[in-house]
Structure prediction request, 549 residues.
Amino acid sequence: MSHKIKILLLVLLLIPASSCQEDFLERTPTDAIAAADALANENNMQLVLNGIHRGLFSQSQTIFPGGDTARAGNHYWVPLGDNLAGYLIHSANANNLGWRNEMQWISHTDQTSLTCELLWYHRYNIILHANLLINGITEGSFTETPELNTILGQAYTYRAYAYLSLVQHYAKGYLIGNPDTDPGVPLLFSSESPFTSEPRSSVQVIYDQIGNDLDAAIASFENGAPRPSGGPEVKSQLNINVAHGLKARWALSKGDWQTAASEAVLARDGFPLMGESDWKSGLNTNDLSEVIWGSNVIEAETTFFRSYFYLASNTFNGSQIRNNPKIADRRLVDAIPDTDYRKDVFLPDAPNSNTSAANGEGGWANNTNPLYTTEEEFDQAIADIKATYGLVSGHNTHPYMHFKLAQKNPGTIDPDDVIYMRSAEMYLIEAEAHAMQNNISDAQAALQTIAGARDTAFDASNYGSQEALMDEIKFQRRLELWGEGFGYTDKIRWDEGIDHSANGGSGASEVLYQEAYVVERPSVNPDWIFKIPQAEIDANPNITPSDQN
Prediction:
């Protein structure tokens, strides 16, 4: 592709995993395997896969030259979706890792930024290694075994995952543009030097390739070995459910409603919805019953102050969170029925203890909550929150702060798993897909299952029209998946802008959010599309300045 990507393949192949069954389950740090040995046997191919698994959550400088310690793979990219969408709201001015710049829409609109560059190279790095396995297996003379088919299925799934991520960030949304003519991203099929990509293909061509890869993945998994049993580590290995789940997301984003609904049903098979105590436990482990796929972040490879929870969880003991507790949109929280247990993880009445809070209401002297009539009551409420949720003395509190994402060991910098796919999402995809086809009863049934599991008083029959259903489905997605990174792609699919001032306001500070306080909808605002890295334009002869978004 570019000179920079030419280097990546050799580098990551010198990083990935080791050889025993325990390492297959990723309980220990990864060791080295020479590039020449990568396709020698199934064990070594699995090591390449383990390298991709690790690359999902490792700091980028450990994956390729030119990486930066400020980015640690999906620890950053997952919560970025809700940071950009205005769901994960900042309460104070803190810019560790450029997190404030993201919220202000500065980084992804700058072609020289780390965000534009590293997301691009991270996803193409996955594609290169998927190509290595796909090309090696399909063009080689290996004896077909269930284990080999599973490796091939994972490789196809990874390639589809990376291309879907790329086209959803670096191209105009499928449903709001002209996919046959809108420029997408370059296709890359090579796994050997010189790694020359094609020019930018259309959005439609990229979507077609994703669909082909997912069909190939599913076919391979159908003849493959099952995912091993075990603890949270096994869910880092992709399986047929993950492929069906990605196909459901792919179909939803392109308006193939029938496929989205049917694939969502297949994806969640065997992953029952979790109960109240598990839902409230912090979404910090793949062990939860409805987790279909996630990175098991082992302690030996922690990212410390580069983790998902450092950026998004109010229990993490890091300056980004201590000084800037993340809050939810008060319009969302206030709309949650009292009968819905999800309301309990948001604290509308938490005292504003931060004298540097962006709204200027921090500290007892500026208190506006009539619940606290004395400074003693105000201070006691802060102390109670800290004791309940395991916060340290330096943690600030703020109205509408959340504890949906909470560490297993709150008040520490301990690593936690990064969850990518849950069965709850699949029910919501099914509901939306049926609603968009005006299949009212089917949409109601899917919605009742997920929302009724969280809210004892929920009755989907109250939403008898397509419009009413879609309004409720959008609300349920924002609530159920809050903090899990879906806001950016949801808003593009729904062609919705950002308005922190509307309907009583979100609670965000206009002074802090600046130009991102109100953002026009994606169909009319090109800033929703990430810039192609300038480094790629400079190095790739098939990408020119005229290709820039």
